[in-house]
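Data deposition worksheet. Section B asks for the primary sequence of the deposited chain exactly as it was used as input, without tags or linkers unless they were present during the calculation. Section C holds the resulting structure in token form. Section D is free text for depositor observations; keep each observation to a single sentence. Incomplete worksheets are returned to the depositor.
Section A, Depositor: J.P.
Section B:
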Amino acid sequence: MAGWSERLYGLGGPLNLPASIFAGATALQFASYFIGNHSITYVRQDGVEKQVGFHWATNWSFLFMLFLPLFVIFASHLVSFWRTHGRAALLPDADRASAVEAWLRNVARSNPTFWAVLLICLGFAGGVQWIGARLLPLSAGMEDGPIDWASVALVRPDVVTVPEAVVFSGLAYFYMAVCFYVMFAGLILLYILADDYWDVAKGQDATAPVREDIARVILKGLYRCTAAGLLVAICMTVQNRYLPSDALDVWAWLFGDMLAVRWGSNPIPSDGYGFVMHYTSLLVALPTCAVMIYGIVRVAIPAGVADLSLRMAAALALIAAGYLLTGAFRGFSLLLGLAVLLCLYGLFDPTYGSNGGRAKSEGRRV
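Section C:
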């Protein structure tokens, strides 16, 4: 499983994997249109109308059609760079073939980890979660939590039937489980890459200039992956926080909070806030941040590129705050908007305008 996952990221075409993820998400969007839950509203018992269509769910639209493919693109590029060029450049006395073999041996040591992640994603995140959150409540006709694109069949059977919701949600959860395995496999590979860099680079004093250049390439790639991964987590927590609110749709909820700050009006109320509001999104955000922090420790500090790592760490702290405080107070949308802007900017320029070290590395090629 480790070797297959590494080949998936390191050897495939740059668009094969992200295009497959995008195609699966597109197929689900079309399927939701055919069964009728793509854009559907219902009226709660308190008279509030809610938009719970599948197309409106940020954790099924933006997540799988944009941010997860971006994560895979950046992770594939970084793994491919390290596999084919970066590792060999740090070992001037070794040929490229031996460098690749050593890298593959390091990946193979983590084979049990890949199998464990596959079991958790398919067995628990996919199967158990679907049975507990979708199959059983829909079969019993019980509303388990806020109504969304699947459970809306219980209150709008004239549009979506329960059997349709069961089948569609099963396909969606299987797709989600496969996609999250791909994402976590990428995070494992990035962790192995950072650790492998540290093992190879230590003691290679003769290649110190090249080592610094490669460290910068790795850090930029890690940060791009982290920014994309946190955007995935933000999509999940935004949708989860919107559902119990009194807003018609997720955009009305966000803009209503902004207006509450600007004009002093009351924000659109939502249920009580809790840090562990969405456990699944935390399972995405925490490993993503952990890999970046590990990369700073293993790559940035030994290579002496503190100027780069400090900016990244500061931006990461602001983004994490925006994610964790979603829905916590009036005006949270401003902090969340700043976090999203930092993520998007970081995808294009992970250094946030830092020019440190460029003069020293000018003229060198990695």
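Section D:
The beta strands are 41-43, 49-51.
Residues 272-277, 356-366 have pLDDT under 50 and may be disordered.
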